[in-house]
Amino acid sequence: MREEDFRRDAVRFAAYLMAISARTAPKSKGEDDLVVLYVEGEEKDRIAEKMIELAREKGKGWKRDGESVKMAEGILILGVKGRKPLGLNCGACGFSCDELKRMTKDGDYSGPNCVFKILDLGIALGSAVKLASVINVDNRIIYRIGVVARMLGLVDADVALGIPLASLGKNPFFDRKD
User: What is the pTM of this model?
Assistant: First the structure.
């Protein structure tokens, strides 16, 4: 079997392993509010096209990232329901936990968010991309992917980021031209 015949399956399998790595990463107080999604094919292309479309209003980085996403086999999207506080009242988000629950501000993400939930997302992302690095799958964490995935209703998370994945001779997610 030629590589072209199994590359997509290999990248998909890598994404599944990365999802497990993200899911089993440590979570604050053991409360797991991580959201995991894998998209490929038409859904992946919808994200790329929307990113390129948004470049007109949001800037050229959106087009650059959208073009690189076109070269991905698929995207692992990790998000978190960060508006659910842990009840520690630490104030790191700028509010008490009760205040945080009542506050709402929408932008690229919904907020405010519990800092511990955001840390959990960061640890999960790090765990996933570390595994991708170990098994040599081209990847990069891209915030714009998560924004568009939320916008298109693909992911139910307050904050989400995407990790495009590929297996090419050169990582298409680095050394990109604006």
Answer: 0.94
